[in-house]
# Entry
Amino acid sequence: MIASAKATRSRVVTSRRLDEKRHESLLACGMKLVFLPRRGFDKKLAFVVSDYGSLDREWKNHGRRVVVPDGIAHFLEHQLFKKQRGDMTDEFSRRGAYTNAHTSHTMTAFYFECVERFEENLATLLEMTLTSWFDAKLVNTERDIIIQEINQYRDNPNWVGYQQLLETLYLKYPLRVDIAGTAQTVAAITPELLELCHRTFYHPGNLTLIVSGDFEPRSLRRLADELASRFAPSTPAPRLERIRPAEPEDTSGRAERRMTLARPRLLLGFKDLEPRRGKGLLHAELATALALDCLFSRESEAYERMYGQGLIGGDFTAAFQAEAGFGYAILGGETRDPAALEESLWQTLDQAKSRGLDGAVLERKKRKFLGRYLRNFNDPESTAYSFLNALGQKSDLFDFPAVLEKVTLADVHERVRSLFERRRSAASLLLPMG
# Structure
C-alpha cells in the first residue's frame, strides 16, 4: 500500500484490461475499506464482512484453545441485529433501505442497499456489527426460532439431500455440519459464548467494509474512518490460530433416506482435499467448472441423453463449490431411476478421463465464462457480490480474465482425472415413502 494521511493507508488497484479500478484503504481502527466505483448509479450498497464462518468452531487466541458449539456464527449473525433500542432492521426500513445478512462456511456478511441517506445507513451498519448487546431473554427467543427453522428444514428434500451428501462426503471436516448447526448445538449457545465470538471475530482487524456506488473516494474514506472509529472497540486485535481437522481421502460411500416426495433424488459428490486459496483456487475452480459445463450443460450430449431417458429434469445440477481451504463438486437431482442416473454420470466421467474433452467446446465455454464475468460490472449490486465471492476465496476479482485465459485443455483433463475419483466420492439418495 501507499502511505497517506495519518493512520489511513490507501491504494488504487487498476485493471487496464477491464478499464476498472477499486480503492482500498486501511482505516484508523484497523478495518479494511474497499470502494468499487459505479458512476452514474443512484443505488448504493455497503457490506461489512467478517472473516468468520461456520468452519470456525475451534481456534487458539494468544495460545489459549477455544471450542464453541456448531452454528454459533449463524446465531451471532441473527443476534447482531438486536440492540437495546430495538431491531436494527427497523431503522433501515424507516429510511427506505433494504438490509440483510448471511453466513457461509468461511465468512459472515451484513449489508444494506439504498438510494438516499447513505451516511445514516452506513452508521447503522457499522454500529450493528462493531457493537454487541446480548440480552438473555432475546437470546433464548432467538434460539427457539433457529431450532424451529432447523427442524423445518428436515422436511425440505433439497436441503436434506444436500446435507446428507456433505455428511457422507466429509468424515471429520466441519463442512459436514450444517451452517445453522443442530438443535442440540444451538441449545448450548449462551450470551457469554456469543460475546466471546463477537470480541474475537468482529474486531475491526478481522472486518472488511465494501462499498459500491457513485462516490468521491476521499470523501467516502473520511466518512468511513469517522464512523468506524466511533463504534470500534479500543481492545487489541486477537492473535488467532484457526484449527481445522485433517480430512481423510475416503468417504462414507453412500447414504439414503426415505421421506415424503414424489420422485427419488440422487446427488453424487466429490471432495477436493487440496487447501487452495487465491489464484490457485480460482484456477482450480475455473478448470473444474469448465469441465462440468463441457460435460453436463444443457447443450451437452450427456444432458440430452439423460434428459431423453427421463433420468434428469430441470433441477439437474453440475456445480463446483469452493471457498478458501475447501472445494467439492455436486452432480444430480430428481430422477425416476437413481441407479441408472448414477451409472450414466459415472459413464460420462469415465469417458472424459479416457478420451478427454473437445478443445473447440472448451474454448466456447471460456468465452461464455468471460462474458458472464464481464456482466458483473454492469451495476453496483453485481459488482459488490462478485467482489464478495472473490473475498471468500482470498482471490482478486480482477485476476479472473488472466487466470481463465491460462486454463488449458490439459489443465481441464487433469482436473477431471484427479477430482472425479471413486474413493473421494459419495452418493446421497432420497427415496419416496412406502
Q: What stands out?
A: The CA atoms of residues 23 and 218 lie 9 Å apart.
